[in-house]
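**Folding the chain**
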Amino acid sequence: MAAKQFKMTAAGKAELEKELDYLKTEGRIDIAEKLKVARSYGDLSENSEYDEAKSEQAKIEARISELEYQLDNAVIIDTAGSDTVSMGSKVTVVRTKDNVEATYEIVGFAQSDPSNGKISDESPVGMALMGAKKGEVVVVEAPIGNLELEIKEIN
């Protein structure tokens, strides 16, 4: 079975590499110190600090593995100069129903962070916007009903 590919921008890949580097260095050092302190408390069988540190260590190691897998299977998408919405585009849209404006950056699934305006190309809004041009109105199928978004600007 072929490995899943993770589409991302060059900037998104750099962010993941930075996080991976941090976890492999400072993250591991911090958790090693916590484990050392917890061991100094004695009996490990009833040591909640030790259990918590081991749990945190497992989370860090899992995130490191996840990041390494994503980076090993990353596909960099370069969309410079495109007049259509694509991976890496920053898109300003206006909801036609109530003229509410929003700006989104279209990123790969691994980079998505909706609270900071980064939406996945696989999300409903992202899929609707992909390939559209400035001035077009796209329809997003949402649980609350269809939303019409007019594309005001593509950067």
